[in-house]
Q: What sequence folds into this?
């Protein structure tokens, strides 16, 4: 993933913010059922029709499988016993636990059985060795209520997928196809839906490229998919251009921004809820609950307003092409003034998750973006185990939230060249009106020595002070 992200860095840096306040709705262009997301945007009917194209559904059902109305699943976590492909920073138990959590994220999918399967290589036609295949088959025979098999590996080759489906007589999913189904069921905004639609294509292209024969059909399909990809990219570009204009407006209003990033399910949305008190936010206990980048207004201790940006969570072991379309939404994180990296301190795989997020963030931005590390879910660990190098909080119990707000404010002030300045101006004067219009006045009280004057606490930047002096000279 990091290689792809590096390639995309210049694109990411151009960045844009997509905030609720400043987007002009065009309700006449947006069918009602698109209107449920938290993030406002505009979307054209044509693009919706393209997304739900029946010709595409036929192709995607063939290669990605369908979500059906639920499945009872056998989860298999393959593991390489030795050699360079053996995973070092996690354990097979933790990998299997994450695979189970992925399946349980889909509505009406339940895990009936789970097992590890040793592998020597990922390239065998039947993927598993003979002994393992026999074991799986006898398990499927004895547990006849299993309706699908999930093999927790990045992607299976098309040949392997067909072979295993033939042997098991059941639909088989790999991590790519499963995560696509999760994305599809969680995507709410038009932008997220377009990104998911785009993320599906590399998987289908790859599968098609592995098929021999049927040249005419494959060529026809390839052309169709290429044209679909072009349409999706155009539609996304329209949204991006719009987001850029939104970002310009945000700059004009001078809000500082804080991106909340972290591993999926770490508690990012819960933290924003705690920081803003926004009751409409509904954190959910499943992976990839948030796919849309949304901005939420909060207030810091000095009464300075700030925008918190919620982002898609990171996850290990998914192919780069799956995440690539979502990198655009991380643009918002990269242009924020500071980053809050939140992790689930109670998770057994916490260390590997932290490292994965840090590595990904590093590849997204060259400069070292000022970052606050936050250890969430402290209510679930023993007080003696609190980390020393991060701020311990509980987003759901709102412990440590006030300290975090102070820390965010301190970092924003130092990183953005803002400072809080006390000013004495005549009440109702032009200077008084100018400050209220152009700057952020965080408190005001009459001067006890002369009640005609006010003492204002104002958030200023060098630029603002310069403009204020020029204004005073012009009076
Ligand atoms: N006990 C406890 N649970 C928490 C805390 N913070 C979040 N949770 C729970 O963790 C689950 C995930 O929370 P979210 O806020 O949705 O996590 P997220 O990082 O936004 O997840 P994605 O959007 O899926 O990447 C929810 O069930 C929350 O209630 C906490 O401090 N303590
Ligand atoms: Mg979330």
A:
């Amino acid at each position: 993933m990091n290689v792809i992200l590096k390639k995309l860095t210049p694109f990411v840096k151009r960045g844009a913010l997509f905030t609720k306040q400043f987007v002009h709705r065009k309700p006449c262009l947006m069918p009602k059922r698109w209107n449920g997301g938290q993030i406002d945007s505009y979307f054209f009917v044509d693009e919706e029709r393209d997304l739900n194209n029946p010709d595409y559904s036929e192709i995607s059902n063939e290669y990605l499988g369908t979500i059906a109305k639920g499945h009872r699943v056998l989860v298999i976590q393959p593991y390489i016993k030795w050699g360079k492909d053996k995973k070092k920073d996690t354990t097979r138990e933790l990998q299997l636990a994450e695979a189970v959590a992925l399946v349980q994220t889909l509505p009406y999918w339940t895990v009936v059985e789970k097992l590890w399967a040793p592998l020597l290589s990922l390239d065998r036609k039947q993927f598993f060795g003979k002994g393992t295949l026999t074991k799986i088959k006898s398990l499927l025979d004895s547990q006849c209520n299993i309706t699908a098999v999930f093999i927790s590996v990045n992607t299976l080759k098309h040949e392997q997928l067909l072979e295993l489906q033939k042997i098991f007589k059941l639909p088989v999913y790999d991590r790519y196809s499963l995560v696509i189904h999760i994305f599809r069921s969680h995507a709410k905004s038009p932008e997220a839906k377009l990104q998911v639609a785009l993320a599906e294509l590399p998987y289908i292209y790859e599968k098609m490229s592995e098929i021999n024969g049927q040249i005419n059909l494959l060529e026809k399909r390839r052309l169709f998919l290429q044209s679909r990809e072009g349409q999706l990219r155009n539609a996304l570009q329209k949204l991006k251009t719009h987001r850029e204009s939104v970002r310009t407006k945000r700059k004009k209003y001078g809000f500082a921004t804080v991106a909340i990033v972290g591993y999926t399910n770490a508690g990012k949305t819960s933290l924003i809820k705690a920081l803003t008190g926004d009751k409409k936010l509904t954190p959910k206990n499943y992976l990839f609950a948030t796919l849309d980048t949304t901005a939420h207004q909060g207030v810091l201790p000095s009464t300075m307003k700030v925008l918190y940006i919620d982002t898609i969570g990171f996850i290990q072991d998914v192919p780069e092409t799956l995440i690539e379309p979502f990198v655009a939404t991380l643009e918002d994180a990269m242009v924020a003034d500071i980053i809050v990296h939140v992790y689930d301190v109670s998770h057994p795989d916490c260390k590997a998750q932290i490292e994965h997020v840090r590595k990904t963030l590093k590849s997204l931005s060259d400069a070292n973006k000022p970052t606050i590390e936050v250890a969430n879910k402290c209510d679930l660990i023993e007080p003696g185990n609190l980390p020393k190098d991060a701020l311990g909080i509980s987003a759901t119990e709102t412990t440590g939230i006030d300290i975090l707000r102070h820390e965010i404010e301190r970092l924003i002030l130092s990183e953005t060249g803002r400072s809080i300045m006390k000013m004495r101006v005549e009440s109702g004067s032009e200077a008084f009106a100018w400050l209220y219009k152009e700057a952020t006045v965080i408190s005001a009280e009459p001067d006890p020595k002369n009640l005609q004057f006010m003492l204002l606490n104002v958030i200023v930047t060098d630029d603002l002070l310069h403009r204020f002096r020029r204004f005073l000279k012009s009076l």
The two ends are 57 Å apart (CA to CA). Confidence is low (pLDDT under 50) at residues 1-45.
